[in-house]
Design goal:
This protein is an alpha/beta fold. It has a single domain (about 5-300), classed as Inosine-uridine Nucleoside N-ribohydrolase, Chain A (Alpha-Beta Complex), CATH 3.90.245. The protein is about 35% helix and about 20% strand. The chain is built from twelve helices and nine strands. A nine-stranded mixed sheet has the order 3-2-1-4-5-6-9-7-8, with helices on both faces. It is globular, with a radius of gyration of 18 Å.
Length: about 300
């Protein structure tokens, strides 16, 4: 039976890979895509989600969400992902007229309360929408099976020395989510930094199908300067982990978000020795199957 999921995302090159695999695989029943300000602004992340919907001729509804963090100043990663957030490929025309609504938090709640089984939330960007969901509808927590998120780090960051981008963009939202009491799996920088997708591997699916060609081109644009070294694809590991969780090392920990420190705001403080863990932290792979799983999932795409 397919796993019902909601994808909350800020596409984003690596978001596009995760969304592509999830939309095309029979193991996943994507109930909706919710967009959030993150890699680029909300208008662009929403348009990118609609471009992917058009590319796959999907009927999955797209709802736009938070245009800014709860309290934080707006940050973005357009210097990494390009001006549109998903440059490098000529996607089919998409229009904001195809957007289902501008109220993704309400849409998530409606799906949660009207689905017969608890839903898994896949968080690929800042956690603003999910925090707003829990604050606006506290009863929704009991309707969520678990949260699989890309964010955080047990050590060094990538936007500041100690903070990972998604958490840094909205630390207050991350604080709400990490302390929600819902089963939570954190797939942070630790995993993606040591699980490289080699250039040889990425080239191998360039001509596999339309999706392989699309991903190859946006990956190449994403890391044009050092593409031949390989890629660290952060967000896609949320989907790969759900497909093959036994291939990853996971440790229980208490994870808290630093909100006050002038130099450490947005850091994920991970305590593996805590007697009250609130999170499963995926730290590494135990084999090299992630490329194989990626390829097998990609074969099912158009």
């Amino acid at each position: 039976m397919a796993l019902p999921i909601i994808i909350d995302t800020d596409p984003g090159i690596d978001d596009a890979a995760a969304i592509s695999l999830a939309l095309c695989h029979p193991n996943f029943d994507v109930k909706m895509i919710s967009t959030v300000n993150g890699n680029v602004d909300i208008e662009k992340t929403t348009m990118n989600a609609l471009k992917l919907k058009a590319f796959f001729e999907s009927d999955v509804p797209v709802h736009s969400g938070a245009e800014r963090p709860l309290l934080n100043e707006i940050n973005n990663a357009s210097h990494v992902h390009g001006e549109s957030g998903m440059d490098g490929y000529n996607f089919p025309n998409a229009s904001l007229k195809e957007l289902t609504s501008h109220h993704s938090v309400n849409a998530m709640y409606n799906i949660l309360k009207n689905t017969n089984e608890p839903i898994t939330l896949i968080a690929l960007g800042p956690l603003t929408n999910i925090a707003l969901l829990f604050n606006s509808y506290p009863e929704s927590k009991s309707l969520v099976k678990e949260i699989i998120l890309m964010g955080g780090s047990t050590g060094r960051g990538n936007i500041t020395p100690l903070a990972e981008f998604n958490i840094y963009c909205d630390p207050e939202a991350a604080h709400v989510v990490f302390n929600s009491g819902i089963p939570l799996t954190m797939i942070g920088l630790d995993l993606a930094r040591q699980a490289l997708f080699t250039h040889e591997f990425i080239t191998s699916f360039k001509k596999m199908n339309k999706t392989g060609s699309m991903l190859y081109n946006i990956f190449q644009h994403y890391r044009e300067d050092d593409f031949e070294v390989g890629l660290k694809l952060y967000d896609v590991f949320t989907i790969l982990y759900l497909m093959d969780s036994e291939s990853y090392e996971v440790k229980e920990a208490n994870v808290q978000i630093e909100l006050q420190g002038n130099l450490t705001r947005g850091a994920t403080v991970v305590n593996f020795k805590s007697d009250s863990p609130n999170c499963s932290v995926v730290t590494s792979t135990v084999n090299d199957k992630y490329e194989q799983v990626f390829l097998e999932m990609l074969k099912r795409c158009k």
